[in-house]
Amino acid sequence: MSKFFFKGRRDVMLSHAKSGYNTKRAVKAGTEQAPIAVIVASDERKAELEAIAAEHDLVITVTVDASQEENTVELDGALNKPKTQVFEKTPNRNEPCSCGSGKKYKKCCG
After folding, report:
1. Which residues contact 99 (CB under 8 A, 6 or more apart)?
2. What distance in Å separates the CA atoms of residue 51 and residue 8, rounded to the nearest whole number?
3. Rounded CA gap, 76 and 11, in Å?
4. Which candidate, 67, 75, 74, 79, places its Cα nearest to that of 42?
5. DSSP secondary structure code for residue 36 in this structure
6. Can you say whether residue 74 is alpha, beta or left, with left for phi > 0 and alpha for psi between -120 and 50 degrees?
7. How far apart are CA 24 and CA 6, in angstroms?
8. Is there a contact between 107 and 96 (Cβ–Cβ < 8 Å)?
9. SS3 for 110?
């Protein structure tokens, strides 16, 4: 009997969901479907974070609890996304060299 017709086969997606992989990539953090949870100690800090979230069009749920320490890790991650690095394309062998010597790239820096 082929292994494809085995009835006791486990569902792979369930194991991904249990181990913490993001199986719903279409839902981004900071939207109405997935708001960012934030814990702060004071009402002043709550107002400050709500203003920052409104400025960046993010949806957050703020919990004011003085007994717990402040937790804004998810919000900081959403605000400080790294920019994509763009590298300059290296010239082809027969193009002029980018150092400005006037020679071909293969004779100068290649």
Report:
1. 108, 109
2. 52
3. 35
4. 67
5. E
6. alpha
7. 28
8. no
9. coil
Separate counts of helices (H) and strands (E) for the chain: 3, 2
Tens digits of residue pLDDT in 74-98: 999 889 988 888 888 888 888 888 8
State the SS3 of 56-91. CCCCEEEEECCCCCCECHHHHHHHCCCCCCCCCCCC
Given a cut of 80, is residue 58 above it in pLDDT? yes
> Global pTM?
0.54
Q: What tokens does 96 get?
A: 């002029």
Residue 64: how many CB atoms within 10 A of its CB? 14
Torsion, CA 57, CA 60, CA 66, CA 68, rounded to 10: -120
State the Cα–Cα distance between residues 99 and 106, nearest whole angstrom: 12
